[in-house]
Amino acid sequence: MSENMFLEKVVSEGISHLSYIIGHGGKAAVIDPRCDCRIYIDIAARNGAEITHILETHRNEDYVIGSKVLSELTGANIYHGKAFDFDYGTPVSEGNRFELGDLELSVIETPGHTLESISIAVRDKGFSNDPIGVFTGDALFIGNVGRTDFYPDRPEAMAGMLFDSIFGKLLPLGDHVLLFPAHGSGSICGSGMAAREFSTLGYERINNPVLQNKERQKFVDYKVAENHYLPPYFKQMEKLNKEGATPHFENLKSLKAYRADAFESASKEGMKVLDIRSPEALAGAFIEGSLAIPLNMVPAYAGWFLNYSRDIGIISENVGDAITASRYLFRLGYDCVKGYLVNGLTGWETSGRQYSRINAVHVKELVKRIQEKEAFTLLDVRTKEEVQRGRLPGTLHIYLGHLPNELEKISKDQPVTAFCGSGLRAIIAASILKQNGFKQVEVSLGSMEACAALGCPLEI
Amino acid sequence: MSENMFLEKVVSEGISHLSYIIGHGGKAAVIDPRCDCRIYIDIAARNGAEITHILETHRNEDYVIGSKVLSELTGANIYHGKAFDFDYGTPVSEGNRFELGDLELSVIETPGHTLESISIAVRDKGFSNDPIGVFTGDALFIGNVGRTDFYPDRPEAMAGMLFDSIFGKLLPLGDHVLLFPAHGSGSICGSGMAAREFSTLGYERINNPVLQNKERQKFVDYKVAENHYLPPYFKQMEKLNKEGATPHFENLKSLKAYRADAFESASKEGMKVLDIRSPEALAGAFIEGSLAIPLNMVPAYAGWFLNYSRDIGIISENVGDAITASRYLFRLGYDCVKGYLVNGLTGWETSGRQYSRINAVHVKELVKRIQEKEAFTLLDVRTKEEVQRGRLPGTLHIYLGHLPNELEKISKDQPVTAFCGSGLRAIIAASILKQNGFKQVEVSLGSMEACAALGCPLEI
Amino acid sequence: MSENMFLEKVVSEGISHLSYIIGHGGKAAVIDPRCDCRIYIDIAARNGAEITHILETHRNEDYVIGSKVLSELTGANIYHGKAFDFDYGTPVSEGNRFELGDLELSVIETPGHTLESISIAVRDKGFSNDPIGVFTGDALFIGNVGRTDFYPDRPEAMAGMLFDSIFGKLLPLGDHVLLFPAHGSGSICGSGMAAREFSTLGYERINNPVLQNKERQKFVDYKVAENHYLPPYFKQMEKLNKEGATPHFENLKSLKAYRADAFESASKEGMKVLDIRSPEALAGAFIEGSLAIPLNMVPAYAGWFLNYSRDIGIISENVGDAITASRYLFRLGYDCVKGYLVNGLTGWETSGRQYSRINAVHVKELVKRIQEKEAFTLLDVRTKEEVQRGRLPGTLHIYLGHLPNELEKISKDQPVTAFCGSGLRAIIAASILKQNGFKQVEVSLGSMEACAALGCPLEI
Amino acid sequence: MSENMFLEKVVSEGISHLSYIIGHGGKAAVIDPRCDCRIYIDIAARNGAEITHILETHRNEDYVIGSKVLSELTGANIYHGKAFDFDYGTPVSEGNRFELGDLELSVIETPGHTLESISIAVRDKGFSNDPIGVFTGDALFIGNVGRTDFYPDRPEAMAGMLFDSIFGKLLPLGDHVLLFPAHGSGSICGSGMAAREFSTLGYERINNPVLQNKERQKFVDYKVAENHYLPPYFKQMEKLNKEGATPHFENLKSLKAYRADAFESASKEGMKVLDIRSPEALAGAFIEGSLAIPLNMVPAYAGWFLNYSRDIGIISENVGDAITASRYLFRLGYDCVKGYLVNGLTGWETSGRQYSRINAVHVKELVKRIQEKEAFTLLDVRTKEEVQRGRLPGTLHIYLGHLPNELEKISKDQPVTAFCGSGLRAIIAASILKQNGFKQVEVSLGSMEACAALGCPLEI
What we know:
about 450 residues, Oxidized Rhodanese, domain 1
């Protein structure tokens, strides 16, 4: 086996999902493939290998896994932890091994995030019997650990399991072991994850803040006290990922190119309008009734607001962005994107149709209004943790994902200014308010980051 | 409709099949799509258009048409001539019209190549009612016209129809009309087609040699006297193209990466070995029993020699070439390419397995042997027309496509030197001879082109 | 010479400049290369050819020609018309010929647009002595002809020359001849050019509106009556294209990634801020003092407003757009783009820095204001021809390019609403007004196209 | 600094040179850039960063470093170790630090491979003061360490320095530290390097075979006993890398497309013919006098045989390979590749020109000949180490690089069969023999790997 080993990371943007392909000797394994999976086949081919193994570290809840479609295209077997009753694939247990040339992958059961979670240790048998790396799924991240709140009836048990998995199984593999987790930095609103996508077990043992809770109970207490949000689409993902969906992106109908009139007609017949332009463009002009989610936020927030059974029509600056959005949505299980508005909003404007705007408000103006006790609602849609780290005085806090269900908390009689970390989530909130009959809606472009930069007085 | 019209030609290499996408006003039509058809969708999207119409100029016999798969992906309707009973799509008649923004496509029935052949005239209605271009399918090419031998019981009738179609319908559209045929230059062994892929009806009227037969009978006589070969795979194509195949290249299994031992095993279990390397590489070392077809010749010659129900394993210089070959074969309806030999022939050689060579013979040596009346067979596998234009003295002529069925004409008792135009077809022939027990096989690299360059004495 | 001829069109977006590469027999010629010219070398290589000839149809005034840099990279000779004293290259005369395999290019002197303008006829000598195509430079377009106003002291003489060139030399080549002009459709604000980029001399003879002026004097009168604008950067282009600039895009410094603070500092030290986002994004939030030119308008309008000796800093939605803009500017001779604002306007907003907005006004609101005689200025920045075809009542017309020099015509005491064809030029105008101290500035998104769609009452 | 850190490895194929770009906060550093360096600028732009620092771990001898051209394109400063008198850049010392957002790079002097060698430790200061990774240049590799034979007068001193650098400075950074060396696996004929490109200091400490020499003297003895070859081009590289070459790949003349006649003429006027096709293709047909180096071997072996002042003409299967070869050669400082033979060897053959072949010999035949004591020379061109691990009986060993100078050791009176590890180097040797008047030359395709697979009897 003289040729090179290869190991590549494939990122699903927005949710910062990390999958991996590793191979040697003409064989390759893919860990946690995304559903638009042609990329793995291309990498394998470039390395003169075929994909022979597909490994799932756990049943995912935040995206549709591509195992079955990749298996169809390659003939590879699918393996996952035995503690969950998947409708497809082969269950594996502690110590099961797979060989790829000189590489050996072996299964370590690491429950905690979910019951069936496994990690995969990697050895270069041509060199040594020591592990050289480990794929940890959602058990251990760089700078954080997996959430343990998915079994609401037994939070402590799950947190305890995670402790045992990390301290009893993963860290003992050795400080020198490379760490390959299933999520990485860049989740825009994530907390705690490092900005760095390279680390080792030793570096995490020493520096991962959560791992400084070295006593089991302290760790459990820490985890149980965490706050996590549970988007409604997780249920859909869990169902699909139990059954083993076979989503084939290449077989989807191509996007229709709607002129303004056709776009309006389709919309009147039920197509949901999703506007993925930047916050500034949305503020400048948008179509009443549309849902605004700037493109990069689509993976993280679409699942909160979009219905799986309703057609979707996209407004974007260009066709490429619309296709990217449809790919992001497809990864979340949405196969109902019908098309896009030709020439974007310019196509709409030049047709003579009506459009609105959402005025942007600078944080200095907000501070002034607060000081002058003007009558307006400052709606902060960040997470609980973010708000706890500092907020403008007098804000109403409703987490963005919960907004559609808590609109009655907001007065329609005075202006509402949507506020978040930077303005990106605020524009989503503003569009939801507009959809729901709020007339005086504004958006704070800059939001908390601008407050921090300017030293605005905050409450904690 | 202020935006640009677009018109792009998409070439299927090797068979030099030309398809087209044309559009305006957010709509596009594809003429004679190939089956790996994602490219049309991408072009349409880049132009802010959707594909709404698919037009087939005739039932094709030399490749699998992609109409149905493109229709599935886009929702576009399929149209073809009414004089054949297709199992799918909508029949159209003389004068039927389709609008794409300011563009108008209209049907002209132009039988001759086949009964149901149609041409499609293009008008820019925003500008004029004159036609600006015409898609002529296999009726009229640049420098040639379509073959009329597909109805063996009525060759004269078909040739006459073609005359009427060209002289009665196409040329009258006007000298100024752009010509967009379904085949172009580059068919390596084609005859008569220009090396140029741009022309007009006027240029052809004046300069196309076949069109200088301006009297109907003279034209008919000319066509009837032509010699054409009928590869066996045409039957398979005709069947698929009647039914409307839905080949989806993206859904094919990815290629397996065979090590030498696995490749040999699969071969022993029935997988046909197809070696697509260059004639020189094939001459230098090859595996006994394999079929040699240099990559660029695959589209034109694979259909003569490969069985549709047998697995295929590819030998190439690199993975990219193997994938290209599998795509070429797929366009001919072969979905049975299983994989490729890792590291190509080097992978085989270093495994210690046996290989052979085919000595290359320079034409000077051939001339010398002929003059000295050495005992050897000079096997010329070119077409009848090529041979009629000049041959080395004493050659045995068997057309390459007919070779497997005419092997008994060749003595096994003396050396056989395969000869063609350049050496590319000769190496195919040489590999067929080797497969069939000929021991003393050589290949003439350079072949007739070298003879011509050197002024070797030829017979006519 | 058995291999294929090739002919490809290379478009410079925005100015819709068309250049061509044509070749056969291992040789290729490029007609009117743009300065980012690696693309021609790649096309030639793909076709197994080297670039041996570079032909300029005339001294260009609207972009920097890439002849010298392409010549440096390929060793090809440069040829242009003899009636201008270029500092480089070789003058050619009527009838000079160049051979590329079977292709023959021959020079036709076609003055009118400029004195030294030439056209290049193409023949396929392997086929016929008839011309098959002609590169016409700025003499004859699809649906229009070249402007003849560049020699202000002799407008009639130039128009007459153009008549003679077209009617005396080009059209006589024959109806069947393919037409390859140096500009195509898509010039956003152009007038008269067809939306179609394929045509023939015959089609133009019959359908080109300007060519219906078949009497010389009528043609001259028509041309002399035309209105054309002369952007200031034409002078710079003419100078560079006389000398033969050697702009090498690959040698330019890469763009700096400015954080908000560094961007502001650089701006205070003299760097001009160019905001290339969409009109809606510019309306939603922009930095006071910046010049707004939406990306697709940069090639057509940057030359009116940007100084060649001042650094430029770009604001865009993403890095790719900034690089595209720097390429567009480079083609106009600007090599002074320093960098871009990291994270675009969000990077600015989250730094706490100030931003403004420009309210968008719907045309219905404009009509209402006009009817109700509200005090506001409706500033129409379209061309004279566009305005003559219809305008809203009471508008002030100043052509966009002239705006910086005619600001004194606009009252600062009442709101100004910028208006154009669609809103794209209006946002440029609005940004110029803001830069010059106008406080109450609005933009009409939709503008005249919306008026037309809605049937607003117009004056003619 | 909320955005992501990025770290990408850029490989120069063939010599398996590894360079890196790492960045955060809009800034990036490149470690040991190759000279075709546009790739770093593109990666930086994709990450919204600019390149601000260029670091050289040592003066390289096996390729031309791209520091100065990258510096010209970006404005970044260049830094290298102070123990060598570079003509450009800034010397740095132990402990010097550079900040890129939250990342800190710090200099560690690690002499041994060369005197001025430095390593660069990486810290994520937003997270911890512990190092997370280290760029080790040619001090420490994965599975091996750098060679220490470049100062022939003090081999022990250099080896001792390397011991001190590794054991005294690098390993103490901690087992958990990621290792980023300057060379990786895939050097076809390298020895000892792992097939894996990911490792940590801890994994190497435990498993790197050379590091098991934990006593200084034992380590020094081990290193001094090693055999290394010194290709002549290293001198040229050292000179260029002292001066700071500014090679700009994009400014090179594009390749000429030679027809057979022009290729032959240029060759007769002094152009060296370099044939980069596969060993099988070279065996099948080649041009007498040409130097054969299969494409993937060009980076490793061209520098032994090609003169810097002589033009080079390439023979390849396609244009893409010729361009790749010219890039490989450029990285070695050759800017004299003039062009390629159009249509490769087929173009030559069809011109009627002469060609030769080199018969391939299977190892079974070699064994038989040896056993039967046939008169022939079996020329083994592998390295001394390879030969020491096993050889066929009676072989003549001359290292490939030394072959041109040791030809007198080989008898011209009997057949010579070139032999190596797989056949790739053997074909190079065979072509050198042919160039030098050896008439009976063969090549062993399969060579030692085939012997090993078949269990041929070997001498040790």
